[in-house]
């Protein structure tokens, strides 16, 4: 019986590629699962120590420091970036062909249902009470599709040679993306057609219940990652999953009818896909997504109100 899914040893810090295979046998001893949620996986966890890497591996190369310390800071920053978005940690997420095909069917059905609900959600006017059940229902669809599709994994990152759950770096990554979007917002607010598109989204909080919209923003951020970087990503296989998951995420966002949300989906989706690929799980994408979305919820209204 053939198997499909992600497997392999971690890549070197200077490599953007991976060593996972699309099928065949599981990875060699010493590699393990990147942690799991939902159904119990038959793979093992890498624990705290993780797999050893060579001299080029993340966490093993000493940082060269210049006289003013800038070289050391640059090297440390580069290493953090590579660990978060490039270097793949060891994982063994193999599953039988039958389960892989089932995952794809569930992902396709979820995309259809989610796209329909997303379109309906943004077709209602701000302050319309129907917006709230529609968007909570959308989150429920994403979560159900992700969990029912098969085992999901939280993932790990390599920090100082040890395998840990990714927490701080994903939050900082989310804040870095926020800086980029805020800079873009300062430009967009002065372009009338684009300003109106952003304002049509912000109006749901301004004219409706802001606390409820904040909860919806948080819940949907988590739900989207459970499905798009969880169930859907795993259903794609090992051939260009970052690119394909980003394109699908963008295509579904088209149902909102708002080009600014589509642009956000392309940019954010690509970063989240890289995190999923590097960490082998959904924890890093979840933390980055909710950091970004909640920051946008708080920062965009005053930026556009000042225009």
UniProtKB/TrEMBL annotation:
GO terms for biological process: CAAX-box protein maturation. Residues 1-64 are annotated as: Disordered. Residues 24-60 have a biased composition (Low complexity). The chain crosses the membrane at residues 105-124, 130-155, 167-188, 247-274, 286-305. Residues 14-23 have a biased composition (Gly residues). GO terms for molecular function: endopeptidase activity. This is CAAX prenyl protease 2/Lysostaphin resistance protein A-like domain-containing protein.
